[in-house]
Amino acid sequence: MTIKEIETLSGLPRANIRYYESEGLISPKRAENGYREYSQADVGIGPYRVLRIFAAAHWAEQCGIRTDRQQKEHTMTIKDMEMQTGLARANIRYYEAEGLIAPERAENGYREYSQEDAETLLRVKLLRALGLTVGQIKAIVRGETELDAALSARIAAIQKEKAALDRAGEIAGRLRQAHAQFRTLDARPYLDEMQTERVLERDTLPKEHFPWQRFFARLVDAQIYRTLWVLILPALSFNMLKTGIGGQVFMELLALGTMFLLEPLLLSRFGTTAGKWLFGLRVTSPDGRKLTYAEGRERTAYLFWYGIRLNLPVFRLYRLYVSYTDEQQGKALPWEDGSEQTIRDHAGWRFAAAAVLAALLIAGGVLRVLLTYGPANRGELTVAQFAENYNTILRQFGDYDVELDETGRWQEESEFSMDGGTVSVTFSDRYPQFEYQTENGSLTGIVYHAEGGEADSWISIPSGSVMQYALFAFAGAEKGHILLDKPLQEAASELSNCVFSEYHTVVDGVAVDYTYTDTIIDDVRTQYSYTLTLTKVQK
């Protein structure tokens, strides 16, 4: 027997029969076409034992009496609805949004669907399969249109579509018989002959848009990727201070690479990223499932170009602005084909928490740089500690130059790593020696003096880099100072620019005095002298 015959025999709705089957009360076989085949055994074990079970359950249900099993049947989750109706979650949400079903809400906020909701969706599914529009189905549910009238209209439409298909098939046959070629094909007469259009309707939830949340979520994610490498690179002896723009570009490339590998993984495992999670955003496929890693990778690749333009300056900001305005206007973004975003809530605390997190990330990155790039020793210095500071700063700025030994004098030989090998360089009286002033073992002043002349040039330029590094190593060691302090940077810049003049200043407890003199002896010889004095002063 078919399920329809079982319905007639037992007086039970089809949904109940399916339910009792799922509970193991009957076990119909499957035919080759996949349909269930019910036997006499399913309804005739004993003197209609199963039918009596059916009848008793049905009677109790009609009288408003529900057993525990029936109560379980009465309320279902959306997952249960997916299994019972064969509809995707997105479709169920859509039909709910259209008012075709109205599930109740439990105390925990989750939807509770009834058996009647399932039956309604099955009816909707059938009518949609027959080609009725959602608007037509809504009119039927509201009683504005009779089902019979809607079906009659649909039959007429099907006949019209069939005639159009027949015409299309006939025209396709004529074109094939005439061996038509694309480049020489005159389409106008055939289009006039067909005079038909087809409009397809997609049953999905109305797309929601979250421009502000998505904009700031992207900024937070980008800052996380950058901060990650700001923390890692110094440990790998990569000096971002000395590399300038090149170092920033390199770090952006690393951040992009991390995003390309990590973001698809996060989307496939959790359906969100750190920034998106903070703003309550979730990325899924149109049917509500999590993206696969391949789908997430494709989405991220499109985002690289259309969303952030490979993080190129100016272009990135422009694309972020365009994406924001498109999202605000309800336009589909290029990387969202095959995915959509939902949001848990619009709580204001999310925005505040994201702002705090972004500030912490930026501050952490800056602090990491400041702690990494600077003197090795701070406070009161010995001569050996000053020498260590000088050598550290020399290496940080990537200057392959002579270093100081523990006594504060220039090393006779220094080793440098270049091109995967070690190079030894010997220095012999290249620079004048520092003169140190100490008190109770603590360094109180430094003098760097040079004088001489050149016979083959008009003048010999003083060593500005040596003076700058000495300033950073001595004045930069003061407590509260950082290598990027504006007064310290200005003083270092002046020492580099005014090598043929004078310069005097005080950098937070350290007096900086530079003097220069020269005397022209004849057309080819010049005598010169310059002195840099760094002295601790009373604050």
Q: What labels describe this entry?
A:
539 residues; alpha+beta; Multidrug-efflux Transporter Regulator, Chain: A, Domain 2; 5-stranded antiparallel β-sheet; 13 strands; 50% helix; elongated
Instruction: Please give the domain count.
Output: 4
> Major sheet: order of its strands?
9-10-13-12-11
Oligomer: single chain
Count of extended strands: 13
Percent helix range: 40-55%
Class computed from helices, strands and strand pairing: alpha+beta
The number of distinct helices, counting runs of at least 4 residues, comes to: 20
Q: Write down the overall geometry.
A: elongated
The span between the termini is: 103 Å
Average predicted confidence as pLDDT:
78
> Radius of gyration from the CA trace?
40 Å
Note the beta-strand portion: 5-15%
Contiguous runs where pLDDT drops below 50 for at least 5 residues: 45-52, 63-73, 196-201, 455-460
- Characterize the main sheet: 5 strands, antiparallel
Summarize the structure.
The chain is α+β, with helices and mostly antiparallel strands and 539 residues long.
Question: How is this structure best described in words?
Answer:
The chain has 539 residues and is of the alpha+beta class. The chain folds into 4 domains: 1-74, Multidrug-efflux Transporter Regulator, Chain: A, Domain 2; 80-205, Multidrug-efflux Transporter Regulator, Chain: A, Domain 2 (Orthogonal Bundle), CATH 1.10.1660; 211-370, no CATH class; 383-536, no CATH class. 50% of the residues lie in helices and 14% in strands. It contains 20 helices and 13 strands. The chain has a 5-stranded antiparallel sheet, covered by helices on one side. α12 (211-232) packs across α13 (240-270), α12 (211-232) runs antiparallel to α16 and α19 runs antiparallel to α20. The chain is elongated. The model is unreliable at 45-52, 63-73, 196-201 and 455-460 (pLDDT under 50).
